[in-house]
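To: structure subgroup
Subject: Chain for Friday's discussion

All,

I'm putting the inputs and outputs inline so they're searchable in the archive.
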Amino acid sequence: MPDRPGVYLFKDERGRVLYVGKAKSLQKRVRTYFQRAQPTKVMAMLERARDLDFIVTDSEIEALILECNLIKEHRPRYNVVLKDDKNYPYIKITVNEEFPRVLITRRQLKDGARYFGPYTRAGAVHETLRLLKKLFPFRSCTRQRFTNRRPCLNFHIKRCMAPCTGQVDPETYAAVIREVCLFLEGRHEELVKDLKARMQEAAARLEFERAAQLRDQIQAIGQVVARQKIVSTRLEDRDVVALARRGDTGQAVVFQVRRGKLVAEESFALQGAAGRSAEEVLAAFVKQYYGRASFIPPEVLLNLPLGEEQELIAAWLAAVRGGKVRLLVPRRGQKRELVGMAEQNASLLLEEEAARETREEEALQELARALGLPAPPRRIEGFDVSNLQGREAVASMVVFEGGRPQPDAYRRFRVRSPGPDDYAALEEVVGRRFARAGDAAFGPLPDLVLIDGGKGQLNAALKGMEAAACAGIPVVALAKEEELVFAPGRAEPLRLPRDAAALHLLQRVRDEAHRFAVTYHRAARTRKALGSLLEEVEGIGPARRRALLKAFGSLAAVKEASVEELARVPGMNRKAAEAVHRFLNA
Protein backbone atom coordinates (compact mmCIF):
# COMPACT_ATOMS: atom_id res chain seq x y z
CA MET A 1 0.00 0.00 0.00
CA PRO A 2 1.23 3.57 -0.65
CA ASP A 3 2.99 5.56 2.05
CA ARG A 4 0.48 8.39 1.61
CA PRO A 5 -2.61 9.73 3.45
CA GLY A 6 -5.97 8.19 2.64
CA VAL A 7 -8.85 5.98 3.69
CA TYR A 8 -8.96 2.19 3.91
CA LEU A 9 -12.04 -0.08 3.88
CA PHE A 10 -12.22 -3.65 5.17
CA LYS A 11 -14.94 -5.67 3.38
CA ASP A 12 -16.55 -9.10 3.84
CA GLU A 13 -17.05 -11.83 1.22
CA ARG A 14 -20.19 -10.07 -0.11
CA GLY A 15 -18.42 -6.76 -0.55
CA ARG A 16 -20.12 -5.10 2.42
CA VAL A 17 -17.99 -2.53 4.23
CA LEU A 18 -17.05 -3.72 7.74
CA TYR A 19 -14.82 -0.86 8.80
CA VAL A 20 -13.65 2.50 7.48
CA GLY A 21 -10.46 4.09 8.78
CA LYS A 22 -8.21 6.98 7.81
CA ALA A 23 -4.46 7.23 8.04
CA LYS A 24 -1.62 9.70 7.59
CA SER A 25 0.24 6.78 5.99
CA LEU A 26 -1.92 3.99 4.60
CA GLN A 27 1.04 1.62 4.47
CA LYS A 28 2.08 2.08 8.11
CA ARG A 29 -1.45 2.14 9.53
CA VAL A 30 -2.81 -0.94 7.76
CA ARG A 31 0.37 -2.90 8.52
CA THR A 32 -0.33 -2.59 12.27
CA TYR A 33 -3.50 -4.72 11.89
CA PHE A 34 -1.32 -7.73 11.00
CA GLN A 35 1.80 -7.14 13.09
CA ARG A 36 0.56 -6.86 16.67
CA ALA A 37 -2.12 -8.18 19.02
CA GLN A 38 -5.49 -6.47 18.47
CA PRO A 39 -8.53 -5.89 20.72
CA THR A 40 -11.28 -8.51 20.59
CA LYS A 41 -13.54 -6.40 18.39
CA VAL A 42 -10.79 -5.76 15.84
CA MET A 43 -9.93 -9.48 15.75
CA ALA A 44 -13.61 -10.28 15.08
CA MET A 45 -13.60 -7.80 12.19
CA LEU A 46 -10.39 -9.24 10.72
CA GLU A 47 -11.83 -12.77 10.85
CA ARG A 48 -14.77 -11.63 8.69
CA ALA A 49 -12.69 -9.47 6.34
CA ARG A 50 -11.99 -10.87 2.87
CA ASP A 51 -11.02 -7.75 0.96
CA LEU A 52 -9.27 -4.43 1.57
CA ASP A 53 -9.71 -1.29 -0.52
CA PHE A 54 -8.04 2.09 -0.14
CA ILE A 55 -8.47 5.61 -1.49
CA VAL A 56 -5.49 7.97 -1.58
CA THR A 57 -6.02 11.65 -0.69
CA ASP A 58 -3.79 14.71 -0.91
CA SER A 59 -3.84 15.44 2.83
CA GLU A 60 -4.85 14.00 6.18
CA ILE A 61 -7.71 16.51 6.46
CA GLU A 62 -9.10 15.29 3.13
CA ALA A 63 -8.83 11.73 4.46
CA LEU A 64 -10.79 12.75 7.58
CA ILE A 65 -13.58 14.31 5.48
CA LEU A 66 -13.74 11.24 3.22
CA GLU A 67 -13.81 8.93 6.26
CA CYS A 68 -16.82 10.85 7.66
CA ASN A 69 -18.68 10.62 4.34
CA LEU A 70 -18.00 6.90 3.91
CA ILE A 71 -19.10 6.09 7.47
CA LYS A 72 -22.32 8.01 6.90
CA GLU A 73 -22.91 6.20 3.60
CA HIS A 74 -22.05 2.62 4.61
CA ARG A 75 -22.70 2.63 8.40
CA PRO A 76 -20.02 -0.07 8.92
CA ARG A 77 -20.66 -2.58 11.66
CA TYR A 78 -17.29 -2.08 13.38
CA ASN A 79 -17.18 1.75 13.35
CA VAL A 80 -18.61 3.99 16.04
CA VAL A 81 -21.78 5.33 14.40
CA LEU A 82 -24.85 7.29 15.40
CA LYS A 83 -27.42 4.74 16.55
CA ASP A 84 -30.70 4.64 14.59
CA ASP A 85 -29.03 7.08 12.23
CA LYS A 86 -31.10 8.62 9.52
CA ASN A 87 -31.19 11.93 7.76
CA TYR A 88 -31.82 14.17 10.73
CA PRO A 89 -34.29 17.03 10.16
CA TYR A 90 -33.15 20.57 9.41
CA ILE A 91 -35.00 23.85 9.10
CA LYS A 92 -34.39 25.10 5.57
CA ILE A 93 -34.83 28.69 4.41
CA THR A 94 -34.84 29.02 0.63
CA VAL A 95 -33.00 32.35 0.51
CA ASN A 96 -32.14 31.54 -3.12
CA GLU A 97 -35.80 32.23 -4.08
CA GLU A 98 -37.43 35.62 -4.60
CA PHE A 99 -39.90 34.98 -1.79
CA PRO A 100 -38.15 32.43 0.45
CA ARG A 101 -39.95 29.60 2.22
CA VAL A 102 -39.25 28.18 5.68
CA LEU A 103 -39.66 24.41 5.73
CA ILE A 104 -38.45 21.15 7.23
CA THR A 105 -36.13 18.91 5.24
CA ARG A 106 -33.97 15.85 5.86
CA ARG A 107 -31.49 16.54 3.07
CA GLN A 108 -28.81 19.20 3.26
CA LEU A 109 -28.01 20.21 -0.31
CA LYS A 110 -25.61 22.75 -1.80
CA ASP A 111 -28.45 24.71 -3.40
CA GLY A 112 -27.88 28.19 -1.99
CA ALA A 113 -30.47 27.77 0.78
CA ARG A 114 -29.71 28.22 4.50
CA TYR A 115 -29.96 25.23 6.85
CA PHE A 116 -30.32 25.15 10.62
CA GLY A 117 -29.73 21.89 12.48
CA PRO A 118 -29.45 18.97 12.67
CA TYR A 119 -32.19 18.29 15.20
CA THR A 120 -32.61 14.87 16.79
CA ARG A 121 -36.29 15.25 17.61
CA ALA A 122 -38.69 15.91 14.75
CA GLY A 123 -41.26 17.14 17.29
CA ALA A 124 -38.88 19.90 18.37
CA VAL A 125 -38.49 21.02 14.74
CA HIS A 126 -42.25 21.21 14.21
CA GLU A 127 -42.63 23.11 17.49
CA THR A 128 -39.94 25.59 16.40
CA LEU A 129 -41.65 26.04 13.05
CA ARG A 130 -45.00 26.71 14.75
CA LEU A 131 -43.32 29.30 16.97
CA LEU A 132 -41.67 30.99 14.00
CA LYS A 133 -45.04 31.14 12.23
CA LYS A 134 -46.55 32.95 15.22
CA LEU A 135 -43.68 35.44 15.35
CA PHE A 136 -43.02 36.13 11.65
CA PRO A 137 -45.51 36.41 8.75
CA PHE A 138 -43.62 34.34 6.15
CA ARG A 139 -45.47 32.20 3.63
CA SER A 140 -46.17 28.56 4.48
CA CYS A 141 -47.24 27.40 1.00
CA THR A 142 -44.81 25.32 -1.03
CA ARG A 143 -45.49 26.82 -4.45
CA GLN A 144 -42.69 28.17 -6.57
CA ARG A 145 -45.10 29.62 -9.14
CA PHE A 146 -47.83 31.98 -7.96
CA THR A 147 -51.22 31.66 -9.67
CA ASN A 148 -53.49 33.01 -6.93
CA ARG A 149 -55.96 35.77 -7.62
CA ARG A 150 -56.74 36.35 -3.95
CA PRO A 151 -54.78 35.66 -0.75
CA CYS A 152 -55.44 32.69 1.50
CA LEU A 153 -56.72 32.71 5.08
CA ASN A 154 -53.20 33.15 6.52
CA PHE A 155 -53.09 36.67 5.07
CA HIS A 156 -56.34 37.65 6.76
CA ILE A 157 -55.20 36.41 10.18
CA LYS A 158 -51.85 38.24 9.85
CA ARG A 159 -49.80 35.04 9.44
CA CYS A 160 -48.63 35.73 5.87
CA MET A 161 -47.82 38.80 3.76
CA ALA A 162 -49.39 37.21 0.64
CA PRO A 163 -46.54 37.52 -1.87
CA CYS A 164 -48.63 35.21 -4.09
CA THR A 165 -50.97 38.10 -4.91
CA GLY A 166 -48.42 40.93 -4.93
CA GLN A 167 -49.37 42.28 -1.49
CA VAL A 168 -45.68 42.70 -0.53
CA ASP A 169 -42.51 43.60 -2.41
CA PRO A 170 -39.43 41.30 -2.31
CA GLU A 171 -37.36 43.74 -0.19
CA THR A 172 -39.94 43.95 2.61
CA TYR A 173 -40.42 40.19 2.58
CA ALA A 174 -36.64 39.64 2.63
CA ALA A 175 -36.43 41.74 5.82
CA VAL A 176 -38.82 39.28 7.52
CA ILE A 177 -36.70 36.33 6.38
CA ARG A 178 -33.57 38.02 7.79
CA GLU A 179 -35.36 38.27 11.13
CA VAL A 180 -36.19 34.55 11.00
CA CYS A 181 -32.50 33.78 10.41
CA LEU A 182 -31.45 36.02 13.32
CA PHE A 183 -33.90 34.20 15.58
CA LEU A 184 -32.64 30.75 14.57
CA GLU A 185 -29.03 31.90 15.01
CA GLY A 186 -29.83 32.95 18.59
CA ARG A 187 -29.02 36.61 17.84
CA HIS A 188 -32.09 37.86 19.67
CA GLU A 189 -30.59 41.18 20.78
CA GLU A 190 -29.94 42.22 17.17
CA LEU A 191 -33.41 41.03 16.19
CA VAL A 192 -35.16 43.00 18.93
CA LYS A 193 -33.07 46.10 18.15
CA ASP A 194 -34.09 45.87 14.49
CA LEU A 195 -37.77 45.39 15.36
CA LYS A 196 -37.74 48.35 17.77
CA ALA A 197 -36.28 50.59 15.08
CA ARG A 198 -38.99 49.50 12.64
CA MET A 199 -41.68 50.02 15.30
CA GLN A 200 -40.48 53.60 15.93
CA GLU A 201 -40.39 54.29 12.17
CA ALA A 202 -43.97 53.01 11.82
CA ALA A 203 -45.11 55.17 14.73
CA ALA A 204 -43.39 58.21 13.22
CA ARG A 205 -45.33 57.60 10.00
CA LEU A 206 -48.52 57.37 12.09
CA GLU A 207 -48.94 53.68 11.13
CA PHE A 208 -50.03 52.80 14.63
CA GLU A 209 -51.57 49.43 13.75
CA ARG A 210 -48.27 48.27 12.21
CA ALA A 211 -46.35 49.65 15.22
CA ALA A 212 -48.63 47.71 17.57
CA GLN A 213 -47.99 44.49 15.60
CA LEU A 214 -44.23 45.00 15.92
CA ARG A 215 -44.61 45.73 19.65
CA ASP A 216 -46.49 42.45 20.14
CA GLN A 217 -43.80 40.64 18.15
CA ILE A 218 -41.06 42.10 20.37
CA GLN A 219 -42.95 41.02 23.50
CA ALA A 220 -43.42 37.48 22.17
CA ILE A 221 -39.70 37.18 21.37
CA GLY A 222 -38.91 38.49 24.85
CA GLN A 223 -41.01 35.71 26.37
CA VAL A 224 -39.10 33.10 24.36
CA VAL A 225 -35.71 34.56 25.32
CA ALA A 226 -36.71 34.73 29.01
CA ARG A 227 -37.07 30.93 29.03
CA GLN A 228 -33.50 30.45 27.80
CA LYS A 229 -30.84 29.87 30.42
CA ILE A 230 -28.04 32.47 30.58
CA VAL A 231 -24.78 30.54 30.98
CA SER A 232 -22.27 33.30 30.21
CA THR A 233 -22.19 37.08 30.42
CA ARG A 234 -19.58 37.40 27.65
CA LEU A 235 -22.11 36.87 24.82
CA GLU A 236 -19.97 34.31 23.01
CA ASP A 237 -20.97 31.44 20.73
CA ARG A 238 -19.82 27.95 21.72
CA ASP A 239 -20.89 24.31 21.77
CA VAL A 240 -20.53 22.04 24.77
CA VAL A 241 -20.08 18.34 23.95
CA ALA A 242 -20.09 15.55 26.54
CA LEU A 243 -20.02 11.75 26.24
CA ALA A 244 -21.20 8.99 28.57
CA ARG A 245 -20.71 5.35 27.61
CA ARG A 246 -21.62 1.85 28.75
CA GLY A 247 -20.41 -1.26 26.95
CA ASP A 248 -21.12 -1.03 23.23
CA THR A 249 -23.42 2.00 23.53
CA GLY A 250 -22.86 5.63 24.31
CA GLN A 251 -24.80 8.87 24.66
CA ALA A 252 -23.50 12.23 23.45
CA VAL A 253 -25.08 15.55 24.43
CA VAL A 254 -24.52 18.86 22.62
CA PHE A 255 -25.41 22.19 24.25
CA GLN A 256 -25.62 25.08 21.80
CA VAL A 257 -24.72 28.39 23.45
CA ARG A 258 -25.41 31.45 21.33
CA ARG A 259 -24.69 34.98 22.56
CA GLY A 260 -24.21 33.60 26.06
CA LYS A 261 -27.59 31.83 26.20
CA LEU A 262 -28.26 28.10 26.11
CA VAL A 263 -30.60 27.98 23.10
CA ALA A 264 -30.72 24.24 22.28
CA GLU A 265 -29.78 20.81 23.58
CA GLU A 266 -29.49 17.76 21.34
CA SER A 267 -28.70 14.17 22.30
CA PHE A 268 -27.35 11.36 20.12
CA ALA A 269 -27.16 7.64 20.83
CA LEU A 270 -24.02 5.85 19.66
CA GLN A 271 -23.25 2.22 18.97
CA GLY A 272 -20.03 0.33 18.27
CA ALA A 273 -18.18 1.75 21.28
CA ALA A 274 -16.98 -1.60 22.66
CA GLY A 275 -13.23 -2.12 22.65
CA ARG A 276 -12.49 1.58 22.12
CA SER A 277 -11.35 4.27 24.51
CA ALA A 278 -13.75 7.04 25.49
CA GLU A 279 -11.49 9.52 23.66
CA GLU A 280 -11.80 7.52 20.41
CA VAL A 281 -15.58 7.33 20.73
CA LEU A 282 -15.89 11.07 21.39
CA ALA A 283 -13.60 11.87 18.45
CA ALA A 284 -15.74 9.68 16.18
CA PHE A 285 -18.88 11.49 17.33
CA VAL A 286 -17.38 14.97 16.89
CA LYS A 287 -16.39 14.13 13.30
CA GLN A 288 -19.82 12.76 12.42
CA TYR A 289 -21.75 15.55 14.15
CA TYR A 290 -19.83 18.47 12.67
CA GLY A 291 -19.74 16.74 9.31
CA ARG A 292 -23.45 17.54 9.04
CA ALA A 293 -23.84 20.58 11.34
CA SER A 294 -25.05 23.81 9.74
CA PHE A 295 -22.99 26.04 12.06
CA ILE A 296 -19.59 25.61 13.71
CA PRO A 297 -18.85 27.98 16.64
CA PRO A 298 -15.36 29.36 17.34
CA GLU A 299 -15.13 27.33 20.56
CA VAL A 300 -16.12 23.76 21.44
CA LEU A 301 -15.90 22.58 25.05
CA LEU A 302 -15.37 18.83 25.59
CA ASN A 303 -15.51 16.59 28.62
CA LEU A 304 -12.63 14.49 27.24
CA PRO A 305 -9.64 15.14 24.96
CA LEU A 306 -9.84 13.72 21.45
CA GLY A 307 -6.49 11.96 21.63
CA GLU A 308 -4.02 12.16 18.78
CA GLU A 309 -6.71 13.43 16.37
CA GLN A 310 -7.52 16.60 18.32
CA GLU A 311 -5.24 18.95 16.37
CA LEU A 312 -6.33 17.46 13.05
CA ILE A 313 -10.04 17.80 13.90
CA ALA A 314 -9.50 21.40 15.03
CA ALA A 315 -7.76 22.20 11.73
CA TRP A 316 -10.60 20.59 9.76
CA LEU A 317 -13.28 22.53 11.69
CA ALA A 318 -11.35 25.77 11.16
CA ALA A 319 -11.20 25.11 7.42
CA VAL A 320 -14.97 24.46 7.28
CA ARG A 321 -15.80 27.48 9.46
CA GLY A 322 -13.38 29.81 7.73
CA GLY A 323 -11.88 30.88 11.06
CA LYS A 324 -10.08 29.50 14.08
CA VAL A 325 -11.86 26.83 16.15
CA ARG A 326 -10.62 25.94 19.66
CA LEU A 327 -11.27 22.51 21.17
CA LEU A 328 -10.96 22.81 24.95
CA VAL A 329 -11.27 20.45 27.91
CA PRO A 330 -11.87 22.88 30.82
CA ARG A 331 -10.70 21.85 34.30
CA ARG A 332 -12.21 24.58 36.46
CA GLY A 333 -14.49 27.59 36.49
CA GLN A 334 -17.73 28.35 34.67
CA LYS A 335 -16.76 26.40 31.57
CA ARG A 336 -16.12 23.27 33.62
CA GLU A 337 -19.53 23.66 35.30
CA LEU A 338 -21.17 23.85 31.88
CA VAL A 339 -19.35 20.72 30.70
CA GLY A 340 -20.34 18.98 33.94
CA MET A 341 -24.00 19.81 33.29
CA ALA A 342 -23.78 18.30 29.79
CA GLU A 343 -21.96 15.26 31.20
CA GLN A 344 -24.70 14.75 33.79
CA ASN A 345 -27.38 14.93 31.10
CA ALA A 346 -25.53 12.34 29.01
CA SER A 347 -25.25 9.98 32.01
CA LEU A 348 -28.94 10.33 32.82
CA LEU A 349 -29.91 9.60 29.21
CA LEU A 350 -27.68 6.53 29.24
CA GLU A 351 -29.33 5.27 32.44
CA GLU A 352 -32.76 5.94 30.96
CA GLU A 353 -31.84 4.00 27.82
CA ALA A 354 -30.58 1.07 29.93
CA ALA A 355 -33.84 1.03 31.92
CA ARG A 356 -35.85 1.10 28.70
CA GLU A 357 -33.89 -1.82 27.25
CA THR A 358 -34.53 -3.78 30.46
CA ARG A 359 -38.28 -3.11 30.24
CA GLU A 360 -38.38 -4.16 26.60
CA GLU A 361 -36.44 -7.35 27.31
CA GLU A 362 -38.81 -8.22 30.16
CA ALA A 363 -41.82 -7.60 27.88
CA LEU A 364 -40.38 -9.94 25.22
CA GLN A 365 -39.68 -12.67 27.78
CA GLU A 366 -43.18 -12.30 29.24
CA LEU A 367 -44.67 -12.54 25.75
CA ALA A 368 -42.68 -15.70 25.02
CA ARG A 369 -43.97 -17.32 28.22
CA ALA A 370 -47.58 -16.29 27.56
CA LEU A 371 -47.57 -17.65 23.98
CA GLY A 372 -45.43 -20.69 24.70
CA LEU A 373 -42.62 -19.60 22.38
CA PRO A 374 -39.20 -21.26 22.70
CA ALA A 375 -37.42 -17.86 22.92
CA PRO A 376 -38.32 -14.15 23.12
CA PRO A 377 -39.49 -12.93 19.67
CA ARG A 378 -36.73 -10.54 18.62
CA ARG A 379 -38.45 -9.61 15.35
CA ILE A 380 -42.22 -9.14 15.23
CA GLU A 381 -44.11 -8.30 12.03
CA GLY A 382 -47.63 -6.85 12.23
CA PHE A 383 -50.20 -6.81 9.39
CA ASP A 384 -53.43 -4.88 8.84
CA VAL A 385 -55.79 -4.12 5.94
CA SER A 386 -57.59 -0.85 5.23
CA ASN A 387 -60.29 -0.13 2.63
CA LEU A 388 -63.51 1.78 2.11
CA GLN A 389 -66.20 -0.68 1.03
CA GLY A 390 -63.57 -2.55 -0.93
CA ARG A 391 -62.31 0.52 -2.80
CA GLU A 392 -58.61 1.41 -2.76
CA ALA A 393 -57.84 -1.57 -0.51
CA VAL A 394 -54.31 -1.47 0.90
CA ALA A 395 -52.36 -3.32 3.59
CA SER A 396 -49.44 -2.61 5.87
CA MET A 397 -46.56 -4.54 7.35
CA VAL A 398 -44.75 -3.03 10.33
CA VAL A 399 -41.64 -4.41 12.01
CA PHE A 400 -40.56 -4.30 15.66
CA GLU A 401 -37.09 -5.50 16.61
CA GLY A 402 -36.12 -5.86 20.25
CA GLY A 403 -39.48 -4.33 21.18
CA ARG A 404 -38.92 -1.15 19.15
CA PRO A 405 -40.40 -0.05 15.82
CA GLN A 406 -38.10 -0.12 12.77
CA PRO A 407 -39.78 2.27 10.29
CA ASP A 408 -37.17 1.62 7.59
CA ALA A 409 -38.40 -1.99 7.44
CA TYR A 410 -42.11 -1.11 7.06
CA ARG A 411 -43.76 -2.16 3.80
CA ARG A 412 -47.03 -1.23 2.04
CA PHE A 413 -49.16 -3.35 -0.29
CA ARG A 414 -51.82 -2.63 -2.88
CA VAL A 415 -54.43 -5.35 -2.46
CA ARG A 416 -55.17 -7.13 -5.74
CA SER A 417 -58.07 -9.36 -4.66
CA PRO A 418 -61.46 -7.83 -5.63
CA GLY A 419 -64.30 -6.83 -3.33
CA PRO A 420 -64.53 -5.78 0.32
CA ASP A 421 -63.13 -9.06 1.68
CA ASP A 422 -60.62 -8.47 4.51
CA TYR A 423 -59.95 -12.20 4.85
CA ALA A 424 -58.99 -12.61 1.19
CA ALA A 425 -56.89 -9.42 1.37
CA LEU A 426 -54.98 -10.66 4.43
CA GLU A 427 -54.39 -14.07 2.88
CA GLU A 428 -53.08 -12.43 -0.28
CA VAL A 429 -50.80 -9.90 1.44
CA VAL A 430 -49.33 -12.31 3.99
CA GLY A 431 -48.76 -14.81 1.20
CA ARG A 432 -47.00 -12.19 -0.91
CA ARG A 433 -44.73 -11.19 1.97
CA PHE A 434 -43.64 -14.75 2.81
CA ALA A 435 -43.35 -15.76 -0.85
CA ARG A 436 -40.39 -13.35 -0.81
CA ALA A 437 -38.83 -14.93 2.28
CA GLY A 438 -35.34 -14.80 0.81
CA ASP A 439 -35.67 -11.25 -0.53
CA ALA A 440 -33.30 -8.82 1.21
CA ALA A 441 -35.86 -6.03 0.67
CA PHE A 442 -38.10 -7.67 3.29
CA GLY A 443 -35.34 -8.58 5.73
CA PRO A 444 -35.08 -11.80 7.77
CA LEU A 445 -38.09 -13.92 8.67
CA PRO A 446 -39.89 -12.84 11.86
CA ASP A 447 -40.00 -14.74 15.13
CA LEU A 448 -43.68 -13.80 15.51
CA VAL A 449 -46.44 -12.55 13.19
CA LEU A 450 -49.25 -10.42 14.63
CA ILE A 451 -52.54 -9.90 12.77
CA ASP A 452 -54.99 -7.12 13.59
CA GLY A 453 -58.30 -8.94 14.09
CA GLY A 454 -59.83 -12.12 15.43
CA LYS A 455 -60.01 -15.81 14.56
CA GLY A 456 -61.16 -15.21 10.95
CA GLN A 457 -58.24 -12.91 10.19
CA LEU A 458 -55.86 -15.36 11.89
CA ASN A 459 -57.05 -18.26 9.71
CA ALA A 460 -56.71 -16.13 6.57
CA ALA A 461 -53.12 -15.25 7.46
CA LEU A 462 -52.32 -18.91 8.16
CA LYS A 463 -53.58 -19.86 4.68
CA GLY A 464 -51.32 -17.24 3.12
CA MET A 465 -48.29 -18.53 5.04
CA GLU A 466 -49.06 -22.14 4.14
CA ALA A 467 -49.26 -21.20 0.47
CA ALA A 468 -45.80 -19.60 0.82
CA ALA A 469 -44.39 -22.65 2.65
CA CYS A 470 -43.76 -20.65 5.85
CA ALA A 471 -46.25 -22.40 8.11
CA GLY A 472 -43.77 -22.95 10.96
CA ILE A 473 -43.60 -19.30 12.07
CA PRO A 474 -45.74 -18.48 15.17
CA VAL A 475 -48.81 -16.36 14.33
CA VAL A 476 -51.33 -14.68 16.66
CA ALA A 477 -54.19 -12.20 16.20
CA LEU A 478 -55.15 -9.43 18.60
CA ALA A 479 -58.82 -8.38 18.57
CA LYS A 480 -59.82 -4.86 19.58
CA GLU A 481 -62.15 -3.91 22.45
CA GLU A 482 -61.71 -7.01 24.62
CA GLU A 483 -58.04 -7.34 23.57
CA LEU A 484 -58.21 -11.12 23.17
CA VAL A 485 -55.24 -13.00 21.72
CA PHE A 486 -56.12 -15.74 19.23
CA ALA A 487 -53.53 -18.42 18.47
CA PRO A 488 -53.63 -21.53 16.25
CA GLY A 489 -54.57 -24.73 18.08
CA ARG A 490 -56.26 -22.93 20.98
CA ALA A 491 -60.01 -23.44 21.34
CA GLU A 492 -60.34 -20.35 23.54
CA PRO A 493 -58.62 -16.99 23.11
CA LEU A 494 -55.92 -15.96 25.55
CA ARG A 495 -56.81 -13.08 27.86
CA LEU A 496 -53.66 -11.35 29.10
CA PRO A 497 -53.82 -9.06 32.18
CA ARG A 498 -54.61 -5.47 31.19
CA ASP A 499 -51.43 -4.22 32.86
CA ALA A 500 -49.19 -6.93 31.34
CA ALA A 501 -46.12 -5.65 29.50
CA ALA A 502 -46.62 -8.42 26.91
CA LEU A 503 -50.12 -7.13 26.07
CA HIS A 504 -48.87 -3.55 25.83
CA LEU A 505 -46.21 -4.66 23.33
CA LEU A 506 -48.79 -6.48 21.17
CA GLN A 507 -51.04 -3.42 21.29
CA ARG A 508 -48.21 -1.18 20.13
CA VAL A 509 -47.51 -3.44 17.15
CA ARG A 510 -51.22 -3.77 16.29
CA ASP A 511 -51.89 -0.02 16.59
CA GLU A 512 -48.82 0.87 14.53
CA ALA A 513 -49.91 -1.53 11.76
CA HIS A 514 -53.38 0.04 11.81
CA ARG A 515 -51.99 3.58 11.71
CA PHE A 516 -49.64 2.79 8.83
CA ALA A 517 -52.42 1.10 6.81
CA VAL A 518 -54.93 3.92 7.38
CA THR A 519 -52.36 6.59 6.43
CA TYR A 520 -51.53 4.77 3.20
CA HIS A 521 -55.22 4.25 2.40
CA ARG A 522 -56.01 7.91 2.96
CA ALA A 523 -53.18 8.98 0.64
CA ALA A 524 -54.25 6.47 -2.04
CA ARG A 525 -57.87 7.62 -1.83
CA THR A 526 -56.85 11.28 -2.14
CA ARG A 527 -54.69 10.59 -5.19
CA LYS A 528 -57.50 8.60 -6.77
CA ALA A 529 -60.03 11.38 -6.16
CA LEU A 530 -57.77 14.06 -7.61
CA GLY A 531 -56.84 11.95 -10.60
CA SER A 532 -60.36 10.83 -11.38
CA LEU A 533 -61.69 14.39 -11.25
CA LEU A 534 -59.13 15.71 -13.73
CA GLU A 535 -59.54 12.72 -16.00
CA GLU A 536 -63.23 13.52 -16.34
CA VAL A 537 -62.13 16.45 -18.51
CA GLU A 538 -62.23 15.67 -22.20
CA GLY A 539 -58.72 15.32 -23.59
CA ILE A 540 -57.04 14.79 -20.19
CA GLY A 541 -55.54 11.36 -19.59
CA PRO A 542 -53.17 9.99 -16.94
CA ALA A 543 -50.06 11.62 -18.49
CA ARG A 544 -51.56 15.12 -18.63
CA ARG A 545 -53.09 14.69 -15.16
CA ARG A 546 -49.66 13.85 -13.71
CA ALA A 547 -48.06 16.77 -15.55
CA LEU A 548 -50.65 19.24 -14.23
CA LEU A 549 -50.36 18.05 -10.63
CA LYS A 550 -46.57 18.08 -10.85
CA ALA A 551 -46.54 21.63 -12.24
CA PHE A 552 -49.05 23.15 -9.81
CA GLY A 553 -48.84 20.88 -6.76
CA SER A 554 -52.55 20.55 -6.04
CA LEU A 555 -55.98 20.56 -7.68
CA ALA A 556 -56.75 23.93 -6.04
CA ALA A 557 -53.72 25.48 -7.73
CA VAL A 558 -54.74 23.99 -11.09
CA LYS A 559 -58.18 25.54 -10.63
CA GLU A 560 -56.71 28.98 -9.92
CA ALA A 561 -54.33 28.90 -12.90
CA SER A 562 -55.09 30.87 -16.05
CA VAL A 563 -55.56 29.24 -19.44
CA GLU A 564 -52.15 30.55 -20.54
CA GLU A 565 -50.42 29.02 -17.51
CA LEU A 566 -52.17 25.69 -18.07
CA ALA A 567 -51.21 25.66 -21.73
CA ARG A 568 -47.51 26.11 -20.85
CA VAL A 569 -47.42 22.80 -18.94
CA PRO A 570 -45.46 20.13 -20.90
CA GLY A 571 -47.89 17.92 -22.85
CA MET A 572 -50.74 20.46 -22.74
CA ASN A 573 -52.10 22.66 -25.55
CA ARG A 574 -54.53 25.59 -25.74
CA LYS A 575 -57.59 23.44 -26.37
CA ALA A 576 -56.88 21.10 -23.42
CA ALA A 577 -56.07 24.07 -21.17
CA GLU A 578 -59.39 25.74 -21.99
CA ALA A 579 -61.23 22.45 -21.27
CA VAL A 580 -59.57 22.11 -17.84
CA HIS A 581 -60.18 25.75 -16.93
CA ARG A 582 -63.81 25.60 -18.02
CA PHE A 583 -64.47 22.30 -16.18
CA LEU A 584 -62.89 23.30 -12.85
CA ASN A 585 -64.41 26.78 -12.79
CA ALA A 586 -67.88 25.84 -13.96
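Points worth raising on Friday:
The first strand starts at residue 6 and ends at 11.
The mean pLDDT is 87.

D.
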